[in-house]
Structures are given as structure tokens and as C-alpha cells.
Amino acid sequence: MAAAEFLAPAGIGIEVPLGRVDSELKKLWKQGEGVVTRASLINLVIYSEVEGSLPINSTMAAEITQDHACRVLLVEAGRRDLSAEVEAWITAHCHVSRAGGRQVCCEQVAFRVAGPLDALTANTILAHLDSDLPLVLWWQPALPTEPHRELWSRVDRLIFDSATWINAGVEAGKLRSLQQISTHAMILSDLNWNRSLPLRTAMAQLHDQPGVACGLPSLTNIIIHHGTEGKTGAQLLAAWFARQMKWKMKIVGTTTALFAPDSNIRCEVEYIAEGDGPHVIAIEGRGDYQFQVRFAPESGLVMGSTTLADGHVYKVTAPGVKMDAAQLMGAELERGSEHRIYPEVLAMLAALQN
Amino acid sequence: MNSSASPTPNPLRDGLGLRSAPQSCTLVIFGATGDLTHRKLVPALYNILADGEAPPALTVVGFARREKTNEIFREELGEALKNFSRQTVKDEVWDHFSRSIYYHRSEFSEPEGYSRLKDLLDEIDREHGTNGNRLFYLAVAPDQFGVILDGLRAHGLNEAKPGSWARAIIEKPFGIDLPSAKELNTVVSSAFQEQDTYRIDHYLGKETAQNIMVLRFANAIFEPLWNHRYIDHIQISAGETLGVEARGGYYDGAGAMRDMVQNHLLQLLCLTCMEPPTDLKANSVRDEKVKVIRSLHPITGDDVATHTVRGQYAAGAIFGKEVPAYRDEQRVDPHSMTETYVALKLGIDNWRWAGVPIYLRVGKRLPKSGTEIAVHFKSAPAVLFNTNAPDLDQNVLVIRIQPDEGISLRMQAKIPGAAVRIEPVKMDFHYGTSFGKASPEAYERLLLDAMSGDATLFARRDEVEEAWSFVDEIRAGWDDPTFSTPLEFYAAGSWGPDAADRLIGADGRAWRRM
Predict the structure, then answer these.
(1) B436 with A95: Cβ contact below 8 A
(2) ipTM for this model
(3) Beta-sheet pairing, B321-323 with B316-318
(4) Using one digit for the tens of pLDDT, what is the confidence trace for B251-291?
(5) Closest chain A CA to residue B436
(6) What fold is seen in the domain A194-353?
(7) Which of A21, B50, B398, B417 is 20 to 30 A from B298 via CA?
């Protein structure tokens, strides 16, 4: 049996008593000694309050650790049917390194916790972090109104998904509170913001062409196509566009309108729901100048085009939209840096939805 | 001649990337049917496109002598791409890209060929929106540079239209000595200004070479120790198990000094030893690099014999297989005196490095392939632990450039037990283990930089000429019968001639075991 098979038992792994997690992990590594390399650059905590989330998140962690070495802590909180306050499992996600056939493994500890996030859960997480490595917290439920200070103060990067938000103003307020608690200048990473990154990139590429960007102020309509759960993502995209153009965003009657404060420019935004899911699928600009950027699922690519008044057609092709959460997470960890524009875009969206 | 045009402002670009955006352009490759195009350039361009890093319009014109259609050229490149791309080839991306690839048949010396090239480029601009931006890639032997650049100049192709740019990328070797480098640079500068000339040294495009600056200047623990007070010596080694393979004809006229030391190794030396630049702009970084080369203590006179070793591999074995002597390789003169191994002891005459020897070695047919920089710190005194023992082993920081890119630090640790016994241990960081995603190939980064107008990772004229000036003096010493610097022979599969061990051993030191 290969060393990695000892290390990576099927499912969420071997159940161990909470107090013996570290010693059992050591035993696990001993089995792979000399054959595998343990790798970890970050602590990745995936927190969920959905029953049965551990195996799903474990599968995603296996995908993420292919490219990003982490110590993974999975937490499924809110269970009331447990025999102990906390149940724990250990395993490792292994893959063959690109540096010459060596097995690289990332350890994972999964916890099932009775009750919501409280001192017990926070202590369980804090006790199992790899020292000195950044703490990335992927928070899957709604943002907390009463955050646990001890845990949140240590978060370096918060991953969340605004796709399910109803009131961005309220959620933005919660994020501000969380950032105030953090002693590590917590970076905000919204997976929903990342979903539209390929479209934003393709739009920027299309308008890199000299003579194309000057058409943008003559747009009178922006049409954003999104999945049925993608309205917030579509609004973030509209807010981004307004921010980049230095325009204001406002609701007039039932319509979202973008204004240039010092001119007559007024551009109406229309949202069209098509298909399932939380993705933004396409954005079209209409008026004297027109452009279109659309995700083509059949090719996995984003295609953009614009036709100028002189008949010139410009096209761009860019890598496609990340379809699942693990891919989005991978892209986020790869990008790494802070999202400088996002707080401004979020503030615009919050003002709109408040 | 032109100066580079500034990019058109695009409000949507803000906040999307940490680097300046590459601009739409046509890449014209001279020598397009050669290996470099198939193995490196087109795979790099494909990966740039597949990663979404490409400019909005990117077209390629292959300029070569053989008769070929666009379709055949695209087909050949598509086949090569499958073998040499670092990521799986997506048909949709390749189909899109391949429609932007053209083949232009002409002799390099044929004026009509350049006239037709100009028409083709104008047509491509109209069709693809490449805006008159041209990147001329001279993937040919240096003796062809003159005729190609003359052709470009005669047809005004070296001059950009208003708001556009024309740049030239030149592959090494940049000459064979200082006079030829100056002549080559004069030829190039007659067509392109220095700011539009990009001399490729692919070592500088490697992730680990770029990481040297990050390691030194983004980590507070290293820079205070990075000087003669704490560093005992530095070793820069580049070994390869390969012989000259099919390059015998070229290599026999060049040798290890010209092929590796003058460019790659001196560039690594510069990155290791330069002062912090004022910013990361191309000229700021290059100013600091060139200061290092200018500060190298010249190796002349008797120093040539005591500070240099040149060697050539004899027959031996590599990976258990017998391999021939260099002189028995194809297209190599059977009486060749060309060096396949060089070891040097260098000194840098400045405040930071006064008295710190820097040992360089490079060779073919060594037991292992690898390039690394090893910084040996001065030993801690052993008085506390064993007053009778010599000094403790040195701390060594090793930056592995290739393969298995990474960084390791050797330090001392106590062996468990009642007695105080000290042994060296190693902390090791491997890029391949920590970062699962493969690093971009050096050519990807360098091509993107050239499209963005960022020359930081390209060699400047004065760097190249100063480097030639330094190695020419050594070569002159080798050729001077007054000084005894015989060509030493070493068995293929060994770590080089004994004289190299004596060179470093004379200072009470030894080469690192790689």
C-alpha cells in the first residue's frame, strides 16, 4: 500500500478523541516518513453550520490543497445529536508534487461541534492552528452578529459569499465590525466578487485597445445577465463599473441608474435572470457605443467583442468563470493580495440596498 | 527611431492587476522555423493567452526562409505546442490564437521581403487592432542581426507610428567579446534606441532569480547580515550533466566562459551582491547591477593563474552510461582547447563586499544538474561548547535557481542526549511543495514584460559590455603564454578538475556538495 493511502483514509478520516488529535496526527505522519512531505503555508478553517457539510468541505479541501498547501480545519457546528461536545477526525490530502514525484500531503482535522460558535468551538479551532501561519477563515453561514472576539481577532483573511445577501448595507456593517475586532488588518475576500473577475478582466482587456475606452461615456444602457441566485453579483458588477467610470449609482423609481456627476450622462442598468446559479453570465453595453462580454460555458472561456463606428471589430478571449466554490477559493488564494477596489464597490452597493 | 508610446488610459483597468498591462502588438519572429519558436516562444505565448494575461490583440508573424503556408506553419506550431506547453492545450484557445499566426517567407537579405512584411503588418493592424505596435524577435545567430536590422530600417519598420511602438528582442550571445558586443550594440542602436532594445537572458525570467531580490529586500533578517562582516564567502554554481549535444559547432567557438559566465552567472552575482535599488524601475535596478560588475576586481597578470581554472571534459560516465570526451563530440575540433568548465575566484571592490571571496563554477558533464547560490556566513566561535574544537560549521543559505527551486538554511542543532554534541541541520523550502501551481516559464514573463515596456529583467547595453570587458581580461590571460593557465581535463561525471579544488582549497575552503 502506498504511503499516501495510510495517510489519507477515505472520507473525513479516522475518528480520534479531541485531546489526542496532535498525537494521532504524529502517528499518521510516521507511517509516511521518508516518503511524503508535509506542507503548509496557511491555516485554512472552513466553518459551516450545515448538517453533513464535513464530507463536502473535505472534498473541496482536497481540491484546494492540490495547489495551496494548508493545514485544513473543518468545522461543522450546531449539531445537537452528538455523544460528545466535540467529535474529531484526522486525515491528509496527498498529491504528487511537480518537483519530482514526491508525495506532498496537507493534514486535515475535521470537527463536529454541538451548538453554534462559542468559546468551546473557538478554543477547538485556536488549539489546532499551525503556529505563525496566516489564518484564512472561510465562513459559510450568514455573517455573525455577535462574533467571538478571541477567534475573529486572529483572522488574517475572511472568505465569505455575498451571493445570498438580501441587504448589503446590513452585511457591510457586520464586516466593518469584524474588521474592527481583527488585530491582523483582516482582508475581505468575497467569493461572489471573484465570480465576476473573468468578466471584469475581459471588459478591461477589450477597452485596453486605443480608441475603444473613449466610447464608454456614451453608453445609455447596461444589461447584466445573471443566474437566478446571481442578482447581488450582478449589482456588484454594476457598482464596479460605476466606480471605475467615477459615476454615481442610484435607484430611480424601479431602475438602477448610473450618473456622471458633472455631465448629462445617465446610463440605466437592467438585470436579466437566466439559468441557475449565482454567476454573472454576461454584460452588454448599449448606446452610441456598444460592447458585449459573455461567458461561453461550452468552451469554458469568456468572449468579448465591440464594434466601433468605423466598422472595426475587436474581440477578446479570456479564461472562463470559476464554476464551483473550490475553484473560486483556489483562485482567491492564488491571487493573494487585498482587493483594493472591493470596499468602495461594497459601499456603493450597500448605499443602494439600504 | 522611436521612443516607446505611453499606454492609453483605460478606466476599467484600475485595480485589476499588480503589473502594467501588456499592449496589443504583433510579434515578428525572425528565424521562426527554429527550435526556439517551437519549444519556447509559441508555448509561452499560448500560456500567456490561456492564463488571460495576453493583451487584447496579439498576433505573430513568423519570418523565415523556408517555403511554407500559414496553415502548415500553424499546424507545425500546434503539434509542437502539445509537446512543450506547460499546461494542457485547450482547442478553443489554440484555435483562437492560431488564427492570429502568420507565416512570411523571405530571405533576411531580400529587400522585397521587408516591403511585403510592412504590407502584412499594416493589414494585420487593420484586421486585428494591433495598433502598429511591433515586437521584433531576433531568434537568429548574431551574424544575421545586421542584415535584418538593415532591412527593418530601410523600410521604416524600426520606426513606430505616432502613439505606437517598435521594439527589438535580442537573444544571446550578445557578441563573443567586448569589440564584437560593441559592434553588435552599434548595429542594434542604429535601428532601435536602447529603451526599445530588450536583450533576453532567460535566467532573469526565472521565478527564483526574481525571488533573490524579494529574499534580500523583503526580509529584515537577511539584509543586516548581507555584508563582509557576517558573510565569509559566496559560491555560485551551475552544473549540467549534459555535454554539448547538437550545439558542438556553436559551443566550440564559445566555451563556458562566454556561454554561461559572461551572462547568466554574472547576472546572478549582480542580483546577489547589488545594493538595494531606489525603486523597481528598470533603470534603477540595472544601475545597481552594473555597479557590481564595475566593482569586480580585475583578474589580470599572475591572478589569472591563481584565480581561474579552465577545464574540458574527457571521456567518463553519466548515470552509469559511458559518454565520449568533448573532443570526440560531433562538430567539435578534435584538438579543441575550448573550456567546458570554469572556476573563478572573484572579489568585489566596494564597502559591502571588501574581502569576501566569491567563487563561481560552471561546467558540463558534471554528476548533477543544478544552479544555486550559496551564501556562507562566518562561523560562530565554539568557545561555549567545546573550547578545543575548531569553529562551528558555517550557516549556509542556499538559493536553488533550478531545478527544484527553493531556499534552504543550514544551522547548528544539539543532538539529543546528555552530552552537548552539535550537528548541522537544514531548513528547506521547496517551491514545488509549497506552491502547487507551476511557475510561469521564464519566456512567458519576459515576453509579457516586453509587451508592457518593462525592461527590468533584460540586460542593458552597459551591463553587457562591462561583463565582456571583465571576462575578456581573463580570456586574454588564458591566451598569454607568460601565465600558466593550462586547460585541465576532468572525467565526465566528476565534479571538475582537481585544480578547481585547489583554487578554493588554497583559501581553506571547499566547494559545496550539490
Answers:
(1) yes
(2) 0.86
(3) antiparallel
(4) 998 899 999 999 999 999 999 999 999 988 889 999 999 99
(5) A67
(6) Dihydrodipicolinate Reductase; domain 2 (3.30.360)
(7) B398
